[in-house]
TrEMBL record:
This is DUF4177 domain-containing protein. Residues 95-133 are annotated as: Disordered.
Length: 133
């Protein structure tokens, strides 16, 4: 099974100035191209772009939600680094011979140490000053 590692970087907000690049769209495309080529040289493959919500502080007590544009890259992990130990089946357990159940060999029951018998105790009226929370 192929395994990947992922890297998430913020998308560029401004274009890069360069000779022969005049419009805003061309400058932004140049910034995006240089970022993708830089990460591609390190072995990262472009996967997708996401706009994710991010809560930020606004003033002393307020928050506002803004959206951050992120680029997601991935690359395959080296197969030599992933070592999966072989699975060895355990031998089937052998059941002991059945013995007749005697009072001494019966398993102990879990529960109260002393089980009182008879009617349950009365609880009395509810206190009016206590409210359910």
């Amino acid at each position: 099974m192929q395994r990947y590692e992922y890297r998430v970087v913020p998308a560029p907000r401004r274009g890069e100035k360069a000779r022969g690049v005049r419009t805003t769209e061309e400058r932004f495309a140049l910034a995006l191209t240089s970022l993708m080529n830089e990460l591609g040289a390190e072995g990262w493959d472009y996967l997708r772009a996401d706009a994710l919500p991010c809560d930020e502080r606004a003033g002393l007590t307020g928050t506002k939600t803004s959206f951050q544009n992120m680029l997601v890259f991935r690359r395959a992990l080296a197969e030599a680094a992933v070592v999966v130990p072989p699975v060895v089946a355990a031998p089937a357990p052998v059941a002991p011979a059945a013995e007749p159940a005697t009072p001494e060999s019966r398993p102990l029951r879990l529960g109260a140490a002393i089980t009182p018998e008879g009617p349950a105790p009365s609880l009395g009226p509810a206190k009016p000053d206590l409210a359910a929370e």
